[in-house]
Specification:
By secondary structure, this protein is an alpha/beta fold. It has 2 domains: 119 residues, 3-Layer(aba) Sandwich (Indigoidine synthase fold); 180 residues, 3-Layer(aba) Sandwich (Indigoidine synthase fold), CATH 3.40.1790.10. Helix content is 47%, strand content 14%. It has 13 helices and 11 strands. Strands 1, 2, 3, 4, 5, 6, 7, 8, 9, 10 and 11 form an 11-stranded mixed sheet that branches. The radius of gyration is 18 Å and the shape is globular. Bound molecules: pseudouridine-5'-monophosphate and manganese (II) ion. Pseudouridine-5'-monophosphate (PSU) binds next to helix 2, helix 8, helix 12 and helix 13.
Length: 302
Amino acid sequence: MSDTTLLLSEEVREALARRRPVVALESTIIAHGLPRPRNLRVAGELEALVRDSGAVPATIAVLGGSARIGLDKAELERVANDDSIRKLGHRDLAPAFAAGASGATTVSATALLAARAGIRIFATGGLGGVHRGWTETQDESADLRLLARTRIAVVCAGVKSILDVPATLQRLETLGVGVVGYGTETFPGFYLSSSGEPVDWTVHTPDEVVSVIRAQDALGGPEAALIVANPVPEAEQLDPDLHDRVLTEALDESRARGITGQAVTPFLLEYLMRRTEGASLEANLAAVRGNVQLAARIAAAM
Ligand code: PSU
Ligand code: MN
């Protein structure tokens, strides 16, 4: 990728050159996952949390046809408030560059750009994955296959609970993407502390995560990501009964309205937020905050 399509902010470039800890952050959650005006505040908050935990934040987006690694205040504001900001998965990057378009990057696009920039640690809320009803729609997030080919560590609260979690875990196994639970023996459930599914490996400290990353590098082999699955604290999770009830409604509504493609995930997240009177939003934010802090500690431990 030429320098004109991958632009690092001064701060991120310097941090990488001096081997200081850097954490990549995605922008789709800001542009399409959170309501205005809270989204802009959250974007700033997440960057501050990374700094307070001793690392440099690199929020990633595409602006005017260039990939931007590290955004200033005005650029963050544009991602949060501009109606023309698209949602870009990794396959959308080339057309967006060519068209001079602007967009927020999903996990797949963010992971690709972060890895190209030399960033090893990435924090988000919940990954995309296999949607319920996959046998009919074949809807599987591009996040999974991209992570199977990209050497990055993603700290997340599992995969979004709107998905078919067991099927997603199965796909991650097939694709050879490593999964470790952080302080947990069950895979987190995004809004919920546990999805009820087991994880095969558990780590307890940032240093242990770094050991896995180093072993991955020493081993070589297929380039694949490491998923560090970090649960939202139980005290901050969404009430599981409320979650199950509203999610059933959301899935019915999405089907009835014929929502497809990129619109599915934002629709379901927004529906849950409305029908839980904001409780799902608080759980989502608690999860992201925890992930961002842990990612910064892992980056610092490296
Ligand atoms: N995590 C959140 N909120 C979000 C997302 C993740 O807490 O909005 C976004 C991520 O950018 C993820 C995307 O990559 O949802 C998945 O979308 P899709 O299912 O269309 O691939
Ligand atoms: Mn999809």
